[in-house]
Each structure stands twice: as structure tokens, then as C-alpha cells.
Known about the structure:
Blueprint: H1 5-19, H2 29-36, H3 40-52, E1 56-59, E2 65-68, H4 77-84, H5 109-124, H6 136-144
Antiparallel strand pairs: 1-2
Helix pairs in contact: 1-2, 1-3, 1-4, 2-3, 4-5
Amino acid sequence: xxxxxxxxxxxxxxxxxxxxEEERRPIPAREIAEAFGIPKNHLHKIVLKLVKHGFMISLPxxxxxxxxxxxxxxxxxxxxxxxLEPGLSPVNCxxxxxxxxxxxxxxxxxxxxxxxxxxxxxxLNLKSLDQLLLNRSTLRAVLLQGGQLPAPRRGQRGHx
Length: 160
């Protein structure tokens, strides 16, 4: 199962907001796009969907930007993936409207794949956004350094 870049970018944007939420400032979408090297226009479309569905808040104006609409421990990863991957089906026959396979009505593959997708989403929903931030200080440092790991301080060993 491979998720689309659309979903990947959406999760990254949520991670960014969660990493910096204690600053209590709205984060410009431009800042998120630059931190991850995401095209701004592409990120804008994703943000609109996440705002519309209550994962983010968009504050207008010069000092506006984005904030999480919920606490990070209330945002479940499976819910985000389900929202951003509307065609979450590994085989075409799972969508009865577009199924073109002649054996679909008699084949057990669709049921197997539906169960697998349910388990996939259920597994993702075992983790909240907050649980993706176990190394929050390192994540923040990397994001602030344009995706580069900060150099270890004198006398410290790097972590791998």
C-alpha cells in the first residue's frame, strides 16, 4: 500500500503544526511548504481540505496562518489518511461503480481487500498525531534547519 503525495504532505503539515503548537502562533502555509520542499499551491489545496474537515484552522490576515483545530492526541492518523485518500482501494473491483471485472460478483478478492483496508486504517488509528512526535525537539530542530540534522554540540555524539 502506497499513500499519495497528497496524503504524505497533509500528514507532514499536521506534524509541523503540532511540533510548533506550543508557540501559540499561526504558522504561515509558506513556512510549512519551505520546511518540507512542498509546492505552495499543492499544499494550499491540502490545507483547504484539512481546514474544511476540522483538522486545522486558517486565520486570515497579515499575522494569520494555520493552527491545529484539535489537540494532537485527538487527531488519529487513520482518520487523516481516510480523508485524504478517498480512493483508498488497492484493487479496482472494490468500487462497485467502476468495477469492470466480469467475476467481481463471484470473487472473494474484493471482500478480502476490504477487510485488509479496514485493518490498515484501524492500525493507523492506533496512533495519534501526538504519538508521531516522540522526538519533538529533534523534529523542530530539523524543520528549522531546512531539513538538515543539526550538528551535535561539542562533546555530544550524534544519534542515528
